[in-house]
Here is the input.
Amino acid sequence: MNQFINDYKSFLDNGKTERECVNQLVKLAELNGYKSIENFKTLKKGDKVYIQKMNKAFAMFVIGSDSIESGMNILGSHIDSPRLDVKQNPLYEKDFVVYLNTHYYGGIKKYQWVTLPLAIHGVVCTKSGESINICIGEDENDPVFVISDILPHLAQKQMKEVASDFIPGENLDLIVGSENPVKESANKEKDKAKKYILSLLKEKYGIEEEDFYSSELEIVPAGKSRDLGFDKSMILGYGQDDRSCAYASAKAMLEFEARNRTCCSLFVDKEEIGSVGATGMASHFFENAVAEIISRMNDNYSELMLRRTLENSNMLSSDVNAAYDPMNCDLYDRNNASFMGGGIVFNKYTGSRGKSGASDANPEYIAKLRNIFDKAEVKYQMAELGKVDQGGGGTIAYLAAKYGMNVIDAGVPVLSMHAPWEITAKYDIEQSYKAYKAFLEF
Here is the structure.
């Protein structure tokens, strides 16, 4: 499994945005015999096909021998992670320092993002139709960027404020340049440092200031994922929620060969902000993708056929769960918590407090999965996110359940979830991959 873990860390390091993840998934899929849906007029057993949307959502299918109306086995994960997004009018100079204005994305603790080396990833699209890929801060010769904080000597007021307030969201602006202060004069050039930064962007990337209007730039922690602990049993890395499950799902799917049921591995965007938009699970992306598959498998495609296919499907919502934290044990019901090193986590329901917003899996489905994973010798655990009334969260499961299919959350326990650097156990990622593989094959 050493190679599997090394490949996983490489996936994390080269997939810090949704676009980068999809780019990797397309390459892996094509290396393993998958072709774009555009290459197929008809589909038959054994065909391997992928569909992508706006470079930020992706689905892989292996066509089985059974009628697709009998349902599919589906692995569904998300590939977005909490971060900072660059605003559309971002660049400004303030008292000799040049900043990029940002808007945080997803549930973060804002104070965790200050004084860290940060990188800029994304794309800038020009009016001419060119798309310019940006990745600054990952190469050892690259500069990095940072958000400053108040020194302790002057932080008396800040230290009295609650954690959610002492770093305002509007203060999470990235330092990207500076000008040495000079003696003020009447003819001093305004925004001289900002203009210099713009000249550098123009020289290296061909970007004008107005090109920020049509950009998608994400601020993420700079640096590679690393082995954690003297025993190297854990991984410290950015974006493991939910790319740990996404990679394990992809790996299982890429090794899967056609059987009776058609199988699918789905990767969607925007889960961290409610699964919205054209590439989120709440969109019609998945439904449309399945319709494209059915239309190539049957000459008599109908809406009813699509509905039956979705309703008769089984899905693992491949998403992470909060790992039990011994330093904050009062937040967990220990008997219903997931532990690092305990294997893949099954979460019967998510939501918050009175199960609000939850998808609640049927016990018959859970019993079937228990049988599958026991036979495959998969190490698994059943858990909740935390104590009742302590908080809560959601996944894409409820959006799949609306079709009437069986679905349950199943993924890797994560410590320090949503922090810039998250912690997972290698064993749990391996067991998740093993579970996903067994699920596809049943």
User: Anything to note?
Assistant: The radius of gyration is 23 Å. The first strand starts at residue 35 and ends at 36. The mean pLDDT is 95.
